[in-house]
From TrEMBL, chains A, B:
Its cofactor is FAD. This is Putative FAD-linked oxidoreductase. The lineage of its organism: Bacteria, Pseudomonadati, Pseudomonadota, Alphaproteobacteria, Rhodobacterales. It comes from Palleronia marisminoris. It holds the Pfam family FAD-oxidase_C. One of its GO terms (molecular function) is FAD binding. It comes from the Bacteria. Keywords: FAD, Flavoprotein, Oxidoreductase. Its EC number is 1.-.-.-. Residues 48-226 form the FAD-binding PCMH-type domain.
Amino acid sequence: MQMPDPNPAILSRKAAVVRRLAEALPEGAVIHAPEEVRAYECDALTAYACPPLAVVLASSTEEVSACLAVCHEEGVPVVPRGAGTSLAGGSLPTADAVVLGVARLNEVLEVSYPDRMIRVQTGITNLAVTGAVEEDGFFYAPDPSSQLACAIAGNIAMNSGGAHCLKYGVTTNNLLGVTVVLMDGTVVEIGGGHMDAPGLDLLGVICGSEGQLGVVTEATLRILPKPEGARPVLIGFDESEIAGQCVSDILKAGILPVAIEFMDHPAIIACEAFAGAGYPDCAALLIVEVEGSDAEIDAQLDRIEEIARRLDPVELRASTSAEESAAIWLGRKSAFGAMGQMGDYICLDGTIPVGELPRVLNGITELTESYGLRVANVFHAGDGNMHPLIIFDANTEGDLEKAEALGADILRLCVEVGGCLTGEHGVGVEKRDLMEVQFDPADLEAQMRVKDVFDPKWLLNPAKVFPLSVSAGRRAA
Amino acid sequence: MQMPDPNPAILSRKAAVVRRLAEALPEGAVIHAPEEVRAYECDALTAYACPPLAVVLASSTEEVSACLAVCHEEGVPVVPRGAGTSLAGGSLPTADAVVLGVARLNEVLEVSYPDRMIRVQTGITNLAVTGAVEEDGFFYAPDPSSQLACAIAGNIAMNSGGAHCLKYGVTTNNLLGVTVVLMDGTVVEIGGGHMDAPGLDLLGVICGSEGQLGVVTEATLRILPKPEGARPVLIGFDESEIAGQCVSDILKAGILPVAIEFMDHPAIIACEAFAGAGYPDCAALLIVEVEGSDAEIDAQLDRIEEIARRLDPVELRASTSAEESAAIWLGRKSAFGAMGQMGDYICLDGTIPVGELPRVLNGITELTESYGLRVANVFHAGDGNMHPLIIFDANTEGDLEKAEALGADILRLCVEVGGCLTGEHGVGVEKRDLMEVQFDPADLEAQMRVKDVFDPKWLLNPAKVFPLSVSAGRRAA
């Protein structure tokens, strides 16, 4: 069905912009029929949606540059998009914006094992990067849950993490260089395959800038040798605080597992009902995975078991085979599916100092009870990256708003204990109003001034990250 | 002896600035007697020296802020200084500048093992950071050769590395947060002990900015569990190209040693004459060190030996004890002392893709012969960080200039093969004129615009990093 655009000013504006884009780009690159642009009206934060003015699907850095140059001249905002898997609304369009997708830019350009690097176009999926090198014994470390679908472009925009980031760091720790197109169409190279570089390091500021400074079309990524093997141990406690203590004790002892995952009682019950993984009915479960050679794995698991035993666990089961490992991970890996069966949910993403886990878990319980809602906690405990899942009913009026208010209170608590608003999902539209909880006006002003330098007209993803009231003077009307 | 200042305008200016600084700071913090400021006239690039207007030795973030606020109002340039060990002239003063030293800021503020972090004041030495945590089994990874003396402030300014950075990365990969004082005296917190943070990541742009954006007074650093042990293998080849091939083959096989050091024939001969470490007389030596448990070390050394044997080494000696390890490292660790006995030298610092090692080594030999000079190569081969040492005679007129010209040609070659001007020493004054080899005018303009945002008057370390002709319009006369 043809969807009529309600606003005549936007309609005539649209015709002019689409004409210029079509002149500058090859056939098939510009999408503007209302029923077709609908496919781009939201990302994985599906509570919000808005069809854009038009969509450009670029196939090269030159096409990205051509699109941006036109939009720059016309003063049209641009919303960059990777695979559209953002949980924070990072690629949510506005009605006056062109969505610029990079999914067609999906080639591997170069692999060098001696330099432990791979150069790719950024539309490639996260998992395809590892796919390109795993036969030769290498892998790309950051592993968001959405890695089968999400694009490296989005990983760079949001500085994505994953279960492995306790040991290997997040995207910024694995990114060596980028080709980035600025809003006026200029193509800039930053960093590269070599170690370090002279002059200012603009790579860090690009990574995690949520598409507000430029559109990254190529990236040089660090690849690492695959460890020989990995095995988990499952540890259950009858108090959350003690599980939190166990996480601290393991890290304090100088053991660096590849992942420490935490599930609280509601999450255990839901996962067990869904997947039947044989989890015990207890207050908190840890899955601690270590990697290396068999001997090395055994030695690390022995030390972890010794630490856990001192805390009187109700369950302690180290894997001795691939089958046992799969059984231990089964419940955890079905967590999001299991939660989906409990109702609608919002997945938060705050980080806290690891030592604050017990206090924050208690605080979340208290807050949740005061709202009369339910919450389940499944998260990367090793680096304090919490993902409280707030369960609500989308069909009950006011329930979404209540869940969002609870989410905001939980994130305020994370900031209060010395943590921050986001670990790996980014700010997007979801958390833009909470930025004032984390930063004072001088901090936000300093950050906006950096955007001023890269994008003086504030056309790139302008309505994201900063509270709208704070960025109002800079954005076009 | 009282040194008369030759310039009366600077002299009266000096009196005014010193008076205001003395009012703003406690007794003993402001040094202005000509014979006392002499101690700050140069850093470890001793070929250049210039006594500053005055020196401020701050003991707190507040004092740094007070000093900067006065200089900002008076329009006086400020040259920040850590321990003064820069090989690139990063803290070389100018006659009109105040040197702002942070060496008195040397406290450990906080240690958290569960969060694997330490917070320090930045005047602390690199080695003292590890010293604060090693009894508990942790260490701070970046390890510049000057680590006994150099300050964390300088490590952050130059994004310093060291022999361990093949495995653990350079300073930027181990820095979690900073307290930085801007030129107008504003104190800003960036990053912190928690994983990631929302908003723009300004930490990367601060690290390696060579004191041009702000003065970093506190830093949160990543600490890591100490490996159980480490052992090297010494591998000798009768051709440099084959040694380069061996480095590539080890990394390609997915082995990640903690260090791969390379010495060419002139370096071997000099070190052997100096230290008598029992090195063979061959074209190139590799020292490859691996770490972990004993079993893990044995397994890695076996694989490395297997790779090396295929390339027909003239020497292959794996350490089996602490004594043997010390013997293997003895020559390498005396390299700089040994070179000092051969004559005066300049130590370069370029990085290249590891695969280009043979080509660049050949190129260095050809260039050196064409200048009629001698060069020795001792460097971190694993991450392509080369340190050619150019030997010259400071007492022969024109020899320093010839050595500098050769150095510039060698760094041009590094850029030509896809590498860069500096790995861990920074640009400083030493390489500022070579920045145009690496970057085109648009790149340099973009970098200078970032400095504009942090330091609009260009008062912080203004005569560094950028070619003077390029930054002329921005710097005060």
